[in-house]
Amino acid sequence: MSAPAIAAVDWGTSSFRLWVLDSKGSVLAERRSSEGMLVATGEGFSSILERHLAAVGAPADLPVIVCGMAGARQGWVEAPYVTLPASLDGILAGAVPVPAQGRTIRILPGLAQRSAEAPDVMRGEETQLAGITPLFVQGSHVICMPGTHSKWVQAADGIVQVFRTWLTGELFAVLSKHSILRHSLGDDIAPPMPDNQAFLAACSEALGHGGDIGPSLFRVRAATLLNDQKPEVAAATLSGLLIGAEIASARRVFGPLSNKIVLVASGSLGMLYGAALRLAGCTLIQADADDAVRSGLFEAAKRLGWAGHRS
Amino acid sequence: MSAPAIAAVDWGTSSFRLWVLDSKGSVLAERRSSEGMLVATGEGFSSILERHLAAVGAPADLPVIVCGMAGARQGWVEAPYVTLPASLDGILAGAVPVPAQGRTIRILPGLAQRSAEAPDVMRGEETQLAGITPLFVQGSHVICMPGTHSKWVQAADGIVQVFRTWLTGELFAVLSKHSILRHSLGDDIAPPMPDNQAFLAACSEALGHGGDIGPSLFRVRAATLLNDQKPEVAAATLSGLLIGAEIASARRVFGPLSNKIVLVASGSLGMLYGAALRLAGCTLIQADADDAVRSGLFEAAKRLGWAGHRS
């Protein structure tokens, strides 16, 4: 077995993921937990990180490269946003050291779009982008990165030009937990399969109405009251409406360029967005989000001389 | 002072309003509380009602006419929905008795739109409509009734033909309390004034994008992070986006008919929707929502022979 070269950490708002990588970027060990920034600001970032490193027997001097909300102002150490247009290479080179730790730790910056009409920020997705740069080195591309806060990015030749955020995942969460729709969805919500008919019909409806799902949301409730709609149908419908609306809306913003999409996602979310984007008539290039962020972190470690060979 | 003829009650999900009216419909006393259906299913509808009647010294035999969620299946006594197309006169004549009470009590039914593509329901707004029938007796009209669940109704000659529900008020509540936007809006949220520039700009933006506010919601957060946006500006922006989106969406659904709107609302909500509808180029006829529901309840009491003269 090869020797560990670095630990790569994707530290989000509500999730923590760590990989121990060798000098070629191969995974030697992995940890996942829900100790995201929200937990870490209470318990301490350092103690959570060291506990996970100890659990995989990481050497005391293993350097750690981090991306995500750990670099937010309310996080561990602020890694100030890089302003658009931004080179992904520049982001990887801009890691901020975490001082006074027993080991070398650096946090990658996020991206800021400082425009009056569309201010926007990201932390973590820029590292996924850096991990899939080969997919969009030449020409202009639109990249869809679904999640709690979905990011759609236009990039060309390794430069991020514009991006926008949709609250799709969070809208599903707050509507299913806190709105009147919760009575129709119930407590035991699983994501629909990508060939679910209610999901596809709702998606199609949202696409057909240019993303306007205003009068469709309450229908999810009314169909339970009037038609004995099952909870799983209600959940699939809400999911389809929100994802379809996001895609219709993003295509309005990004125009014809969005006919060909680089989709960066994992698991069931990747399958759902894949189905929805195909329904919208898009051609897809798919990349796994976990692989992407790990590759981006490894690229940053290479630039720091911690692993691999500088190109 | 004239003698009390009836008590009229608008019993919503989260609010209770009672008026004691004389035989001409004039208000002799009024009670308002937050003892809506959600409270009443625990404490008991009867005890809440009797407590408020006792507080205004109502006679033991004063009859009570009720509309709203008290007539829901999960309410006091179910008053089954009347199916569209529905005559407002028929709704008023369809009050269901509450059995085994010390006094005569009737609850008005709600309305159901039993269509496969747009199932919808209302409870309470049909009584407001009945209270403003003179505003739309001749020809086809679109009526906007904003609230937690905004209802837009197409009616002609006293017949309700179609309606749709927008979750606008509830979306504002769940986004401002439970989503990441809460960090930008803060805890002390007051409705904006109707001439608030952030409200009008956001409204205009939503109207211009055909109601697509997908990428605009997260901007409310990003503008705080990047531009030190004040909480009241964030709240006015979110309010403008949601109300503007509702109007754009309703105009898509109801078409040219929605150029002239009967707006049924009270207080600050009425002023905000008034400003937003005028921004959208609509001509308005305005009616007060409280007056409307009270008039509708009084009309129902007249048909029961409890007050006034049968027409």
Description:
The structure is a homodimer of 311-residue chains. The two termini of chain A are 25 Å apart. Helices cover 40% and strands 23% of the residues of chain A. Chain A folds into two domains: 131 residues, 2-keto-3-deoxy-galactonokinase, substrate binding domain (Nucleotidyltransferase, domain 5, 2-Layer Sandwich), CATH 3.30.420; 114 residues, 2-keto-3-deoxy-galactonokinase, C-terminal domain (Nucleotidyltransferase, domain 5, 2-Layer Sandwich), CATH 3.30.420. The radius of gyration of chain A is 20 Å and the shape is globular. The first copy, chain A, is of the alpha/beta class. In chain A, α5 packs antiparallel against α9 and α8 packs antiparallel against α9.
Q: Strand percentage of chain A, roughly?
A: 15-25%
Separate helix tally of chain A: 11
- Total strands of chain A: 15
CATH architecture heading of the largest domain in chain A? 2-Layer Sandwich
**CATH homologous superfamily classification of the largest domain in chain A:** 2-keto-3-deoxy-galactonokinase, substrate binding domain
Please give the most extensive interface between any two protein chains, plus how many residues each contributes.
A-B, 44 and 43 residues
Order of SSEs of chain A: EEEHHEEEHEEEEHEEEHHHHHEHEH
Task: Output mean pLDDT of chain A.
Answer: 94
Spans of at least 5 consecutive residues with low confidence of chain A: none
Oligomer: homodimer
Strand order of the largest sheet of chain A: 3-2-1-4-8-7
- Domain count of chain A, please report it: 2
